[in-house]
Amino acid sequence: MSREVVPDGAGGFHVRFPFDRRLVDLIKSLPRRRWQAADKTWWVPGEDVVALVDLLQPEGFDFDDEVGRLYGERGGTRTLSPPGARRPAPAARVLGRGLFDEPAPAEGGDNYTVGRLNREVRVVLEGAFPAPIWLVGEISGFNRNKHKRHVGFSLVERDAAGETAFQVGAIVFEDTRREIERTLRAAGDPFLLEDEIEVRVAVRVDLYDAWGAYRVVVQDLDVNYTLGEAARRRDEIVRALAAQGLLEKNTSLPFPALPLRVGLITSLGSDAYHDVLRTLKESGFAFSVTAHGARVQGRSTESTVLNALDWFRPRAAHFDVVMICRGGGSRSDLSWFDTETLGRAVASFPIPVVVGIGHEQDLSVLDHVGWRAKTPTAAAAMLVERVRAALLRIDELSASILAGAREHLDAESRRRGDTARRLARAARAFLDMSRISLLAGARQLGQAARRDLAAERRRAQEAARALGPRAARAAAREGERLEARARRLHLVDPRRVVERGYAILRRADGGVVADPAAAPKGARLTADLRGGHLALVSDGPAAGMPARGEE
After folding, report:
1. Distance (Å, whole) CA 365 – CA 70
2. Can you tell me the distance from the alpha carbon of 185 to that of 200, in angstroms, rounded to the nearest whole number?
3. 8 A C-beta contact, residue 325 and residue 265
4. pTM score, two decimals?
5. Rounded-to-integer distance, Cα 180 and Cα 176, Å
6. Angle CA(357)–CA(361)–CA(356) in degrees, nearest 5?
7. In terms of DSSP bridges, do strands 4-7 and 12-16 run parallel, antiparallel, or are they unpaired?
8. I need a labelling partner for 56 at 20 to 30 A (CA). Which of 43, 217, 419, 446 fits?
């Protein structure tokens, strides 16, 4: 089975390759990949074409034309090498006298055997390179053989596009490998011998005559070169970003007081992933985490992290911060984050980017442009502390507001008490003054009233003395008129009628019966007679007698 990526006809891709644990781990770094057991293929959605090609192109996969077209559309300036493409071989170099000169016809000479040819070429190579040389290259294919005693691999040189331009076979024998590993341990294990690490090694140029295979035999490793080259490259990138004014662009953004909506970029299921989630969960705060998978080691680190940042960028309004996290590792593992493109992407991101990569002593380009935390756990703890500080500040402000309100109420209560006491004193003073004024007025009024009454009494006495005779005459006349009216009233009194033999009929309520209709049959009546009262029962109006008003 070849290594290939083909469309599935429904917008996704099928990835096929013979089983290789390393390739399986690469595919699993894609967040939305899915294993299809029935077809024995990996399925990847079309949206992830850029990350997929960037991940598998260095592994020698063949890509369908449709894959290349989509990659070109979505990858911007990125291009896909055509299947089977080979780069031109470097020009031959003369390594010995006449070795590659035009051979003279073999006239009667001995025939070369393959073994003889290989051995003589080996001698020529040894003569051209009598002593070990320092060779710089990137390790490739080491991981497939690292469990063997003698490890064969390749040293490659890449062009500006990151493609392999030149390569040479290499081998490190067991004793040399053990010595190199001891040297690395003594230096604190700054990196491991593994794929995609650029090294400077002392090699002996050799040809393995049994196979006719040209190779180099590794004899020593320059540890400081790999570390120094990574540091030099990182410093160059930091200086370039500083010249563009990008170093403080992201860290100058205001950091949210409550960074609860978190975007996380890391390898899904890794220790860093679990450390971040556990720290945020154990805080007890309502963090909401959206994780986007990315490779955090190897050549695909840049493309997959950029892909994740591109996913979060248009959705930045829905997040408070984005975290980029990777757990501890060798310094060469972490150097994959040291790219100018990644640094520029983080520096120009619209919301704060918290960087938790490696250990406390590790430093990457992203640490210079983002909000640096020592480790993934420290990055999560940084958010927890921000939220805790915000809540503490809220509590302090609440207590301050309550204390201020209480003080204001106490002062207002004292002010109102003072005002009430002043009002009470003023009211008492006013009442006292009013009482004094009323008493004085009453005395003055009494004196004036007595004076006025005495004056009126004198005037009345004088008027009485003046009106006495006339009043006596008027009173006599009025007395005579009253006696005449009394006699007339006595004559019309109903009792005088009764005394002459008549009766007055009254109803039970005392009302006078003046109409037969007022005394219906059965009505109880009383007759007032001269000699007393007579109880009667009415038989109703008399027959044949017209009622009043019917005449």
Report:
1. 31
2. 17
3. yes
4. 0.45
5. 6
6. 20
7. antiparallel
8. 217
For 282, which DSSP code? Answer: H
* pLDDT tens per residue across span 384-431: 999 999 999 888 888 888 877 788 888 888 888 888 888 888 888 888
In eight-state DSSP terms, residue 328 is -
Residue 287 CA: distances (Å) to CA of 243, 312, 383, 386, 460:
37, 17, 9, 12, 106
**C-alpha separations of 373 from 64, 356, 366 in Å:** 42, 5, 11
The C-alpha atoms of residue 515 and residue 513 are separated, in whole angstroms, by: 6
Q: Which two tokens stand for residue 400?
A: 């301050």
Q: What are phi and psi of 326, to 5 degrees?
A: -150, 140
- What is the distance between the alpha carbons of residues 49 and 53, in angstroms, rounded to a whole number? 6
309 pLDDT band, cuts 50/70/90, is very high
At CA 117, angle to CA 116 and CA 121, rounded to 5?
115
CA separation for the pair 191, 295 (Å, rounded)? 18
In sequence order, which residues have a C-beta less than 8 Å from that of residue 290 and are 6 or more positions away? Answer: 262, 263, 264, 319
Strands (E), 222-285: 261-266
Residue 320 has a CB neighbour count (10 Å cut-off) of: 20
Return the bridge partners of 39, or none: none
Angle at 260 between CA 259 and CA 262, to 5 degrees: 90
What amino acid occupies position 13? Answer: F
